[in-house]
Specification:
Layout (H helix, E strand, L loop, with lengths): L1 E5 L4 E6 L2 H18 L4 E9 L11 E7 L10 E3 L4 E4 L4 E4 L3 E6 L2 E6 L4 E10 L9 E7 L17 E13 L5 E6 L2 H11 L3
Parallel strand pairs: 2-5
Antiparallel strand pairs: 1-2, 3-4, 3-13, 6-7, 7-8, 8-9, 10-12, 11-12, 12-13
């Protein structure tokens, strides 16, 4: 594989890849496209335990998340002759290229080789207080204010029933400090993503 880098103005990356590299890159691109077909994708920005499960729909863990708008648009500072996947996050941005993952953080660029990128997935039950995505699996219901026996706490007049959704959580990590957690409304799409991204 050959890479030509233009340094005047925008960063210009031009690849001449053999078939093996291009097949691996296309497999990763396709994996992200499968994940993108999920109705909703979030970045989990904070997670912690709570002692107030009764007033948090019975949840023992509080999760903060933001919508994650993954796309294939090049950032203003970059051009290339290959497809990319761009993952804008709260504090950083990931760009998936044929040979590496670029990380932009605080206007600085770093990179991770694919053999250093670790991707793991797990199913999570999430008490959804927003609109339920049409591709999500609802496994049950709880109440916004709930007693220990799972009955509604009648002291609260605005107590409403909330769905419990089964989502897939995707964890992207690396030895040099990458630690990103995504959540997908569609478990099947997320599982297919994980399988295709970790293929040799």
């Amino acid at each position: 594989m050959k890479i030509y880098v233009g340094t005047f103005g925008k960063v210009k990356l031009f690849y001449e890849c053999d078939e093996k590299y291009m097949q691996a890159h296309q497999r990763r691109i396709n994996a992200w496209k499968i994940l993108l077909s999920s109705k909703r994708i979030w970045q989990v920005t904070q997670k912690g335990t709570t002692l107030r499960a009764k007033t948090n729909a019975g949840a023992q863990t509080i999760v903060n998340r933001i919508a994650c708008r993954i796309n294939q648009k090049f950032p203003l500072y970059m051009r290339s002759n290959v497809e990319i996947i761009r993952v804008p996050l709260q504090k950083e941005e990931l760009i998936f290229l044929p040979d590496q993952v670029l990380i932009r953080r605080n206007n600085k660029l770093g990179s991770i080789d694919y053999d250093q990128l670790q991707i793991t997935g797990s199913s999570v039950r999430f008490v959804e207080d927003q609109a339920v995505p049409s591709d999500a699996e609802v496994t049950g219901y709880t109440w916004k204010y709930v007693n220990k026996n799972n009955t509604p706490d009648k002291r609260f007049k605005d107590n409403r029933q909330l769905p419990i959704c089964l989502y897939e959580q995707i964890h992207l990590t690396s030895p040099n400090g990458l630690n990103v957690v995504l959540q997908s409304s569609n478990q099947n799409n997320a599982t297919a993503f994980e399988i295709n991204m970790t293929k040799e």
